[in-house]
Design brief:
Layout (H helix, E strand, L loop, with lengths): L1 H13 L9 E2 L2 E2 L14 E2 L2 E2 L6 H15 L17 H11 L27 H7 L3 H9 L24 H7 L1 H18 L5 H22 L12 H19 L6 H8 L21 H19 L3 H9 L3 H16 L5 H13 L2
Antiparallel strand pairs: 1-2, 3-4
């Protein structure tokens, strides 16, 4: 419990709202205005869509098209604009782009570098590989389920000289059946939930649960990308592990990853790839907010490891109902937006929620 208290104190005292990484451009993900707003703006060959998911603008276009296609089914998500939970994904991709994490880390090409094609996403990038599973695969599912238009067929372009990335719904369903079935279930649930007579808050919680189930499946499948971590420093590898671990918390709480709330979590992330010798909270060329966030991520991951995974298990156990997940979301937001949030309150609420499950 003392270790948990120390963790809570670090989190509550460290995180602030001050922006460090470049996440938005004119209120939208970076270069959003240059992405496709209509399916017909993507490359077509012999009547088949052939976008290149290894081009930043094409990958962001996947998200823009999916958001546009699913918005009509999400009126219960809220009264403001940009309430769609898919917004978290293009926001995240924009941070990776601006921080240089989509560029070739091997040094063998200039893909993604200022000296090359800045919109190129390298197949050698761990981050680019991981987000393939949360962009290309749901896009293929959306097309298969008719969200991009009637009988729209998609054949994604493959990275030159690289194998292992599925490019059609059929191929991905064979290679990653669990992932594709869960994205298919998400798009099917959107239509069913719209017709449901449940209260809006229950509809919202339900669809967020299906959404995070699909996204978590994509994240787990992206373990095939782990070998690409060897291109990076030990410090960047540790941060990548911590970043992946943090997803367990937001998924269990059915976090409403709309544009505004996603911004709170992405603002203080490190604005460049970590190098050897980067030790938070004393990285000179990173902001105080970035240093704090790196410390928080490291502590959360390390404490969970020391406790044999019980920190994540306790959190997941507490997220057992609509009411506790609502409290969980409030706790996550408090930790991000309120540096003076009492640690004792954080721990007592988690304990209370666990005992009521």
């Amino acid at each position: 419990m003392l270790r948990l208290a120390a963790l809570g104190l670090l989190v509550a005292s460290a995180v602030t709202l001050c922006s460090s990484a470049v996440v938005l451009e004119n209120g939208m993900p970076i270069l959003w205005s240059q992405t496709a707003s209509q399916v017909t703006e993507l490359p077509v060959q012999n009547g088949i869509l052939t976008p290149n998911p290894w081009h930043y603008l094409h990958r962001q276009s996947f998200y823009r098209l999916m958001i546009g296609a699913t918005d009509p089914y999400m009126s219960y998500m809220g009264t403001n604009q940009n309430e769609n939970p898919i917004w978290g994904l293009p926001m995240e991709l924009g941070w990776m782009y601006s921080s240089g994490r989509l560029a070739d880390p091997s040094g063998s090409t200039t893909c993604g570098l200022q000296t090359g094609d800045t919109t190129c996403i390298s197949a050698e990038s761990f981050w680019g590989c991981v987000t393939y599973f949360t962009s290309a695969l749901p896009f293929l599912s959306a097309a298969q389920k008719g969200f991009l238009g009637e009988n729209v067929q998609v054949q994604l372009q493959a990275p030159a000289g690289v194998e292992g990335f599925c490019t059609t719904h059929a191929e991905c369903s064979t290679s990653y059946p669990d992932v594709m079935s869960k994205w298919d279930a998400f798009f099917q649930a959107l239509k069913a939930t719209t017709e449901s007579t449940l209260p809006d808050n229950e509809k919202k919680d339900s669809i967020l649960g299906v959404y995070w189930t699909a996204q978590t499946a994509s994240t787990h499948a992206s373990a095939v990308c782990n070998a690409k971590k060897t291109h990076y420093s030990t410090e960047e590898q540790s941060f990548a592990d911590s970043w992946s671990n943090s997803a367990e918390y937001v998924a269990a709480a059915h976090f409403h990853s709309n544009l505004q709330k996603s911004l709170l979590f992405l603002n203080p992330l490190p604005s460049r790839v970590l190098r050897a010798g980067d030790v938070a909270p004393n990285i000179a060329d990173l902001s105080q907010e970035e240093n704090y966030t790196l410390s928080v991520f490291a502590w959360m991951r390390n404490i969970n490891t020391i406790l044999g995974g019980s920190l994540v298990r306790m959190w997941k156990g507490a997220m057992c109902s609509l009411s506790t997940r609502e409290k969980g979301n409030q706790l996550l937001e408090q930790l991000i937006t309120n540096p003076s949030f009492p640690t004792t309150t954080f721990l007592s609420v988690i304990t209370e929620m666990t005992t009521t499950c």
